[in-house]
Design goal:
The structure holds 2 protein chains of 2 kinds.
Chain A: E1 30-43, E2 46-59, E3 63-67, H1 74-81, E4 89-99, E5 105-107, H2 116-121, E6 126-129, H3 133-136, H4 143-154, H5 159-172, H6 178-181, H7 191-203, E7 209-213, H8 221-238, E8 241-245, H9 249-255, E9 258-263, E10 266-272, H10 273-278, H11 283-290, E11 342-343, E12 349-350, H12 355-358
Parallel strand pairs in A: 3-8, 3-9, 6-7, 7-8
Antiparallel strand pairs in A: 1-2, 1-4, 4-5, 9-10, 10-12, 11-12
Chain B: E1 9-21, E2 29-43, E3 48-52, H1 59-66, E4 74-80, E5 86-88, H2 94-97, E6 104-107, H3 111-114, H4 121-131, H5 137-150, H6 167-179, E7 185-189, H7 197-214, E8 217-221, H8 225-231, E9 234-239, E10 242-248, H9 249-254, H10 259-266, E11 316-319, E12 322-324
Parallel strand pairs in B: 3-8, 3-9, 6-7, 7-8
Antiparallel strand pairs in B: 1-2, 1-4, 4-5, 9-10, 10-12, 11-12
Helix pairs in contact in B: 4-5, 4-6, 5-6, 6-7
Classes of the chains: A alpha/beta, B alpha/beta.
Bound molecules: adenosine-5'-diphosphate (2 copies), iron/sulfur cluster (SF4) and magnesium ion (2 copies).
One magnesium ion binds next to helix 1 of chain A.
């Protein structure tokens, strides 16, 4: 069997415009460097730029949250990382650099769709869990068969060994009596138990990166808390790096180390969770935080963000947020290209022309 | 002298039990799901009562049974009519209920599923008035226009179809349709749950404004505790088909006395990373079709004693205006 660690550099067919390989090696403490990622969909109304120049770095062993309202491109970004974008969509540019613990690195965006390398990365070093556990589980196979299949796809072992490993993993994700549950079908389990099975499946190959797309959104608050605890334990025990996609700022505040906030296919602000939650500098981030009905105040009018998210085929000129922005300045924000990403300090970056004015507004 | 206001709604011992049938050709009843069991509360005019709890605890069934979208298994629903008379909705026939329907309406979670895709917004909003023959001609048009304006939709939206709207706008259409008949009582069932936060805030504000303007009384069903805290005067927490705690909103959040309420509140994640939450929650939500004897929460409760596993605790006033169904409330 081919060792998946051999030669992780892709063949560079047709990539003359890409920078030389040396710049494609992320720094050592980064597990994933997404650079200028562009994903588009060909539709009847024209080309939709669902992800338009997204750049972020995931530091090893940390939980990074991608947040924003529905349609802003969170799922498309995360699917791109595993190359799961299907027709009529395509990755139209950018790099997705993965750096493994063993030092090897690869640009996932440049891999051939049918390459063995991609097959080994997906479900091996990088794996994904989805919002609705039933989309990831087959209703006609037992939980055990599905977990064992995930193991045998990437690891050489006998069926008995795989079964023992599956039982151990189901126990680890908090399923009581795993040796009995393993022979049950998904419909015999509760929603929370099913999501645990999906997480167990995603973890059996000890991934370096776990991509979790709204993993708790379909769950009740007490079950959500249990699954959040599980993700945190995995980070602490196994050092798993997690990309957490969610629209729930509460989940982010409690679970994430770093955040990137997306609006209309772009990252408008990113940085460490405390800094973003306590000192947001993009008016959109500020608006999101302020419109949360907090557990503290009652009955007061909620500050909301004016208007609605425009559609992708009518992205406003200048700063895409300007029609809804209370800080927008005529002649500055509504003209030209979208604002560039500026660094406020070495970790906190924002794409707003007037971020200096936004200081302290969250208080 | 001002007389003490009377409740708009008195719910007494309300039950809705669903039979569980065996599979196969000879279907017979093998059990019962007590989706809504011995529910008691009063609702004052203009008040907003929250019904919270995790999925399957019976919130929707309770709301629908109160409005007689479902026939109750037992109990009374005493509704005070605008003329001052009281009727028991639980015992009325369909024909007797029909003229009362305009007084009580429901707003649903998924505006998409609840709006007819082949009707224009104007027709969707006008339909209840047409069905109940409450307006026609220019009066009908005026009332529809007025309602659309109140919910923040523009006159040019009248001729559009639901698919041309965003989720927030569709929810406004659903609200307009529910309020066009000027109901007294509105049950909002997860009405803002599917909306993004910025839009959710707009719709919450709208519901509060309309309550003031039109003198509405709300039963507000939601699983998001921060939304409920924001909008409700009092909150009823449900677990496995029963109300386990009922209190003023602030009091409930300041000091929950039922052990399930405590667990539920501790599990709410706060956006502020420095406000801790509890990720170590015991067990799973009880299945109302397969309940343990005694208190349904007993298998997960740290304060549980033998007494708890014998007889179901009743909802009782433990301190002024604070009700709980627990043998060992944390007072
Ligand atoms: N298969 C597709 N065809 C056309 N457009 C798509 C497709 N998938 C996603 N999109 C567009 O991409 C945008 C981003 O979607 P998505 O990443 O799913 O948003 P999020 O996960 O943030 O809610 C959406 O506005 C959607 O219109
Ligand atoms: N028509 C029905 N037939 C049988 N069981 C039902 C029916 N409707 C609801 N149930 C059951 O009643 C319980 C309460 O459901 P529901 O009122 O929808 O809860 P909630 O709104 O709190 O999520 C659940 O266990 C559900 O499966
Ligand atoms: S660039 Fe202008 S419009 Fe955009 S967020 Fe900043 S202030 Fe608002
Ligand atoms: Mg998504
Ligand atoms: Mg419901």
């Amino acid at each position: 069997m081919k060792n998946e660690n051999d030669n992780l550099y892709p063949h560079s067919e047709g990539s003359s415009s890409r920078p030389p390989p040396s710049s494609r090696v992320p720094p050592q403490d980064h597990v994933l460097d997404v650079r200028d990622l562009k994903v588009e969909f060909k539709t009847e109304e024209g080309i939709l730029r669902a992800v338009d120049g997204v750049s972020f770095a995931m530091r090893r062993g940390r939980i990074m949250a991608l947040v924003g309202e529905s349609g802003c491109g969170k799922s498309v970004t995360s699917y791109s990382i595993l190359r799961l974008i299907q027709q009529p969509g395509r990755i139209a540019g950018g790099q997705i650099l993965f750096r493994s613990k063993d030092g090897s690195s690869v640009d996932i965006a440049a891999l051939d769709e049918k390459s063995e390398q991609l097959f080994h990365l997906r479900g091996g070093k990088l794996s994904m869990i989805f919002q609705e556990p039933m989309t990831a589980l087959s209703p006609v196979h037992t939980v055990g068969n599905q977990v064992c299949e995930a193991i045998l796809l990437h690891q050489k072992m006998t069926k008995q060994e795989a079964r023992a490993k599956a039982i151990a993993m189901l126990g680890k994700v908090g399923i009581p009596a795993p040796e009995r549950r393993i022979d049950q079908y998904p419909f015999e389990l509760s929603g929370g138990m099913r999501q645990r099975v999906v997480i167990a499946m995603a973890l059996v190959c000890n991934p370096e990166v776990l991509i979790a797309d709204e993993p708790t959104t379909a769950l009740d608050v007490t079950i959500q808390a249990q699954v959040m605890g599980l993700i945190k334990d995995l980070q602490q025990e196994l050092g798993t790096s997690t990309l957490l996609i969610t629209h729930d700022l509460g989940v982010v505040g409690q679970l994430a180390d770093d955040i990137a906030v997306m609006y209309l296919g772009r990252i408008v602000e990113q940085g460490p969770v405390r800094e973003i939650m306590k000192n947001p500098r993009h008016p959109y981030t500020l608006g999101l935080l302020k419109s949360l009905p907090s557990l503290a105040m009652n009955k007061a009018r909620l500050p909301s963000i004016d208007g609605t998210v425009p559609s992708l085929n009518a992205i406003p000129p200048g700063c895409p947020f300007h029609p809804r922005c209370p800080y927008a300045k005529e002649g500055l924000c509504n003209v030209g290209a979208p604002p560039p990403v500026e660094s406020i300090n070495d970790r906190h970056a924002v794409a707003c022309l007037r971020w200096r004015e936004v200081e302290g507004a969250a208080k | 002298m001002i007389a003490a206001p009377e409740p708009l709604l008195k719910v007494r011992g309300l039950c809705k039990h669903f039979p569980v049938m065996s599979k196969g050709i000879r279907r017979r009843q093998i059990g019962v799901v007590k989706a809504c069991d011995e529910i008691n509360f009063d609702l004052m005019p203009g008040e907003t009562l929250g019904l919270v709890g995790e999925s399957g605890c019976g919130k929707t069934t309770t709301g629908r049974t109160i409005l007689r979208a479902l026939a109750p298994t037992a109990g009374e629903v005493l509704f005070k009519l605008p003329n001052g008379n009281s009727v028991d909705l639980a015992t009325l026939s369909e024909a007797q209920l029909r003229p009362l329907r305009p007084h009580m309406q429901m707003v649903f979670q998924d505006p998409y599923a609840s709006l007819n895709p082949r009707m224009t917004v104007r027709d969707i909003v006008a339909e209840p008035l047409v069905i109940h023959k409450m307006a026609k001609g220019s009066e009908l048009d005026d009332r529809v226009s007025d309602m659309l304006k109140r919910v923040g939709l523009k006159p040019e939206h009248r001729t559009r179809y639901p698919h041309a709207f965003s989720g927030g706008q569709r929810q406004r259409v659903g609200i307009a349709r529910a309020l066009i008949m000027r109901p007294k009582l509105v049950v909002c069932d997860e009405a803002v749950s599917a909306l993004d936060v910025s839009v959710q805030a707009q719709v919450i504000n709208l519901l509060q404004d309309l309550q003031q303007e039109l003198g509405l009384t709300y039963i507000f069903i939601a699983h998001d505790l921060s939304v409920v805290k924001h909008i409700c005067d009092r909150i009823a927490v449900m677990y496995a088909g029963r109300i386990v705690e009922l209190a003023q909103t602030q009091a409930l959040f300041d000091k929950p006395v039922h052990h399930y309420t405590k667990m539920l509140l501790s599990a709410v994640p706060n956006p502020d990373p420095d406000v801790p939450m509890n990720m170590e929650i015991r067990g799973e939500v009880a299945d109302p079709g397969n309940l343990p004897p005694g208190c349904a929460f007993s298998p997960r409760c740290a304060a549980c004693t033998d007494a708890c596993r014998k007889i179901v605790p009743q909802l009782e006033e433990k301190s002024p205006a604070r009700f709980a169904a627990c043998y060992h409330p944390d007072l």
